[in-house]
Amino acid sequence: MPTSSVEIYHRFSFVAARAMTHMPPDHVCSRLHGHSFKIEVRLKGPINEQEGWLIDHSDIAHVVNPLIEKLDHRYLNEIDGLDKPSNENIARWFWRHCQPHLPLLTSITVIDTDETGCLYDGT
Question: Rounded to whole angstroms, how far apart are CA atoms 30 and 7?
Fold first, then answer.
């Protein structure tokens, strides 16, 4: 039987505040505000035929949960590397911290509202 390739995802969430302080003062995002963020971590590769999956989801959680804990109920502007905490920069921050431990990582998605978010693929 040929090896099959799959893409899997694991979703996480955290609540945090931010202010886009580099924006003009009359911009709505320049003021302190909070979001219930959703993070989606996607990985792609061959199914391990012995185990029957690409990767154990607990291995993904082992990498991502400590990062979630660093951000949950925090002011993102005070987190090292997030002085401009846009969805784009949050996605890149997660990528930089996850990719060395999850080499099959294909994308990080950050969702801050029902209508808006960012998908980052490491490029």
Answer: 37
Q: What is the pTM of this model?
A: 0.94
* Mean pLDDT of the region 68-86: 97
pLDDT in tens, 2-41: 568 999 999 999 999 999 999 898 998 889 999 999 999 9
Question: CA-to-CA distance for 103 and 69, rounded, in angstroms?
Answer: 22
